[in-house]
User: Which sequence fits this backbone?
């Protein structure tokens, strides 16, 4: 049974902070857990009591110098290098032809969804967008800490967006349709043969696309209320104080409200980032923090494990999501989506997710996770956190800006949020030091390993129930290894999720705060060309080995726990490989 200690009240929220301040908060003893022996978090912060924005110091090239933005942070936040994977080509996915936009169909039946029209207004005039100079940094606030004045301003802006003419590309439904079109294969890949569907999820395009999406959505809202400093809030679901739907989105009289949400998950319900069905609120919080630590720190071996697999011209949709996208990102979508609706609208399906104002607040925190991972988290295990592959950097998208101008933008311009003119309010990161307790018991594992079948006798495997089996290691004892699940074929029309445990000694799948929890696979329901997609994932075993006794083992016991109901997932194979050597490239 978990126990929770909350600290004294936090300082009053601030809508603006100095642009020289880090994202990390003051040192705090935020959370304790009975199993975790009162962990002490080592995080830092500062305050900006007068809320005065400061100008941004730029380098001679005109780009924001992040070293000047992060004064006093020391070597932890040193410059990151770029990494180009072997076999890099020159086939970036290019912006689609929006005049060639198809209907969104039900992936289960192939029939067009009644009343769903995702295609934007067509405009022949397209310009390449140039990021404007940053004179005043916008600071996106935590949604649980905003002032009544901020809520009034945000509600006013969204109300005005809802009142725009239906054919105005800045209107609320047109903005929602951006996600519908890009994320349900209404478009074809630009630059290809004109037949390959385009999907910006489950690949390395996930983070840059959504960063641009929020960037223009935010600028449109600011334009509608005459406030260029307006900044979107982020739903701080990675912190116990933010693990409920923010109150301003639960006011039924507000423009921020959406009736198509799971009614059982309205405040004060605590979000379940593991989709475990756990009901104990304290255990939920502990599970959530463990998930964040795993997907942000423990489970990734290289940049693609976090960012997602490469996606080039001709690549089939859904080549593979990164840890954050298939983890907390997917769980929030599904947890908020309305279980009374046939397809879990609004948030629980890609075609309708943008119709809930909470979507943009959720993705504000997803974007924040990218910034934290890229610039603020320890980089010893993954020294290269940026991608130089030209197919990534030169991938492009089309958006309408705050002036209703259709613009072309590139992934390469999203690598620095400060250069795009915004930062995030500093909030505690209680998951930063939330490493699971060391597992000591071996008796049950020894008994299980003697009876569990070898993986080679089970795969290919249709995963519709809990399954346990042995997998051979590359060498005996502790080693730098990865668990690879190959050819995961899924029905894209369904929410699907399964968790992976290693040498689990208690078999309690409702508790994730233990060394045995390795990671997850999950997807939000969406449409693909033929309803099915195939990908693979890698989960790093190295840190997990440090937390349990594997000194004499030449196999491990793997347990797969499906969180979805019924069929929908087939796994082609599973194996353990050595973690490739890490190299730093200029």
Assistant:
């Amino acid at each position: 049974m978990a126990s929770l200690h909350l600290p004294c009240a936090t300082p009053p929220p601030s809508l603006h902070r100095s642009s020289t301040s880090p994202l990390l908060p003051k040192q705090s003893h935020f959370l304790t857990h009975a199993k975790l022996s009162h962990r002490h978090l080592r995080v830092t912060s500062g305050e900006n009591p007068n809320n005065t924005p400061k100008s941004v110091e730029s380098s001679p090239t005109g780009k924001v110098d992040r070293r000047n933005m992060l004064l006093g942070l020391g070597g932890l936040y040193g410059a990151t290098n770029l990494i180009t994977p072997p076999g890099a080509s020159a086939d970036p996915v290019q912006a689609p032809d929006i005049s060639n936009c198809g209907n969104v169909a039900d992936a289960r039946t192939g029939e067009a969804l009644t009343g769903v029209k995702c295609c934007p207004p067509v405009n022949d005039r397209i310009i390449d967008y140039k990021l404007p100079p940053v004179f005043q940094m916008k600071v996106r606030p935590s949604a649980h800490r905003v002032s009544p004045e901020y809520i009034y301003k945000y509600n006013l802006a969204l109300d005005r967006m809802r009142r725009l003419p239906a054919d105005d590309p800045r209107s609320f439904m047109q903005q929602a349709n951006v996600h519908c079109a890009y994320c349900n294969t209404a478009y074809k890949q630009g630059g290809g043969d004109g037949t390959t569907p385009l999907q910006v999820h489950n690949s390395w395009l996930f983070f840059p696309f959504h960063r641009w999406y929020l960037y223009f959505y935010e600028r449109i809202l600011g334009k509608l209320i005459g406030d260029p400093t307006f900044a979107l809030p982020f739903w701080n679901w990675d912190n116990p104080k933010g693990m409920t739907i923010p109150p301003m989105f639960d006011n039924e009289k507000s423009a921020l409200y959406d009736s198509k949400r799971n009614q059982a998950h309205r405040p004060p319900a605590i979000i379940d980032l593991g989709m475990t069905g756990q009901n104990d609120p304290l255990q939920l919080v502990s599970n959530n923090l463990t998930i964040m630590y795993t997907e942000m720190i423990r489970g990734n071996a290289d940049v693609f494990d976090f960012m997602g697999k490469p996606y080039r011209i001709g690549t089939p949709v859904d080549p593979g999501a990164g840890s954050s996208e298939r983890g907390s990102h997917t769980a929030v979508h599904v947890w908020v989506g309305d279980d009374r609706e046939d397809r879990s609208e609004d948030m629980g399906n890609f075609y309708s997710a943008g119709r809930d104002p909470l979507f943009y607040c959720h993705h504000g925190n997803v974007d924040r996770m990218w910034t934290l991972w890229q610039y603020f988290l320890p980089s010893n295990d993954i020294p290269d956190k940026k991608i130089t592959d030209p197919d990534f950097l030169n991938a492009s998208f089309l958006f309408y800006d705050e002036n209703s101008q259709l613009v072309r933008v590139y992934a390469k311009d999203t690598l620095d949020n400060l250069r795009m003119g915004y930062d995030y309010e500093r909030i505690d990161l209680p998951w930063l030091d939330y490493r699971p307790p060391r597992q000591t018991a071996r008796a049950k594992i020894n008994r299980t390993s003697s009876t569990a079948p070898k993986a080679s006798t089970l795969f290919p495997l249709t995963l519709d129930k809990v399954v346990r089996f042995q997998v051979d290691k590359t060498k005996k004892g502790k080693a730098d290894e990865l668990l690879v699940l190959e050819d995961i074929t899924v029905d894209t029309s369904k929410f699907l999720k399964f968790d992976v445990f290693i040498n689990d000694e208690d078999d309690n799948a409702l508790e994730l705060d233990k060394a045995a929890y390795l990671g997850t696979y999950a997807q939000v329901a969406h449409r693909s060309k033929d309803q099915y997609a195939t990908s693979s994932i890698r989960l790093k075993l190295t840190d997990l080995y440090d937390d349990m006794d594997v000194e004499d083992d030449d196999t491990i016991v793997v347990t797969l726990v499906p969180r979805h109901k019924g069929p929908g997932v087939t796994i082609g194979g599973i194996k353990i490989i050595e973690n490739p050597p890490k190299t730093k490239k200029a």
Observations:
- The chain is about 20% helix and 15% strand.
- Confidence is low (pLDDT under 50) at residues 1-22, 26-88.
- The two ends are 48 Å apart (CA to CA).
